[in-house]
Specification:
Elements lengths: L4 E9 L5 E3 L2 E3 L3 E5 L5 E7 L6 E8 L9 E4 L2 E4 L4 E8 L10 E11 L10 E15 L7 H6 L2 E5 L2 E6 L5 E8 L2 E2 L5 E2 L3 E6 L8 E6 L10 E4 L1 E2 L1
Parallel strand pairs: 1-11, 4-11, 12-20
Antiparallel strand pairs: 2-3, 3-5, 5-9, 6-8, 6-10, 7-9, 10-11, 12-13, 13-17, 14-15, 14-16, 14-18, 18-19
Protein name: Molecular chaperone
Keywords: Chaperone, Fimbrium biogenesis, Periplasm, Signal
Subcellular location: Periplasm
Length: 230
């Protein structure tokens, strides 16, 4: 009698220099797609010594459902143990804003093989999905992502803190503290936009310190400013 196979899906997010989804190593934590390039490569390595993995990849617009304006090849393939293969990401040609970055997400789903000896056993099979930010970067943007991060403005009104990004790039926080208190639930600020979050009993002039994540997955220098009244 063949016993049932239990399948569990685990989603991981890339934060460090190299992301791991079980036996699959993803070569970066974010994808930067410069508009002047024909394609961008994302390296995957199977670190297993014996078992292959099945790899499925696609992009989405951020809602986890709508496919992004990129073609990923190969969309589905087998990666043998101790082998590396690159995914190739190509823009579909869909019109996108030219005065600021646009954000999408790259998804890499990895499905492990099952050893032949386990065919008749009750097996817990984990399917991993790694999700990375994919930034579409048009030509001719002003300054740099680090400049956008450095020039963020922080203000408050009626228990709300406003973060204003006047730059052309997304600012993704590595750390953010106000009066020494860590603010973990603020992820990023879109270009030419504001992010708002509640923070009661914050005094005008409170010290704000922050770092952003660079294109290479590490942190910028720490920046400091004062909280102003909006």
């Amino acid at each position: 009698m063949r016993l049932p196979l239990l399948i569990v899906c685990v989603t991981t997010y890339a934060f460090t220099t190299l992301s791991h989804a079980a036996g699959i190593q993803v070569g970066r934590t974010r994808v930067i797609y410069d508009a002047n390039k024909k394609e961008v490569a994302l390296a995957l390595t199977n670190t297993e010594k014996e078992l292959p993995w099945l790899i499925q990849s696609w992009t989405d617009n951020g809602d986890g459902k709508t496919r992004g304006p990129f073609i990923v090849t190969p969309p589905l393939f087998r990666l043998d143990p101790q082998k590396e293969q690159s995914l190739r990401i190509t823009w579909s040609g869909q019109a996108l804003p030219t005065d600021r970055e646009s954000l999408f997400y790259m998804n890499v789903r990895t499905i492990p093989a099952i050893e032949k000896d386990n065919n008749q056993k009750n097996v817990l099979r984990l399917i991993y999905k790694t999700r990375l930010k994919l930034f579409w970067r048009p030509e001719g943007l002003k300054n740099t992502p680090v400049d956008a991060c450095k020039n963020l403005r922080f203000s408050q009104r009626e228990g709300q803190v406003f973060i204003t990004n006047d730059g052309d790039y997304y600012s993704v926080f590595d750390t953010l503290r106000i009066s020494g208190k860590s603010i973990p639930h603020v992820d990023m600020v879109a270009p030419k936009a504001n992010a708002t979050f509640p923070l009661a009993n914050t005094a005008n002039g409170s010290k704000v310190t922050w770092r952003c994540i660079t294109d290479y997955g590490n942190a910028t220098a720490e920046f400091t400013t004062r909280l102003t009244q909006k």
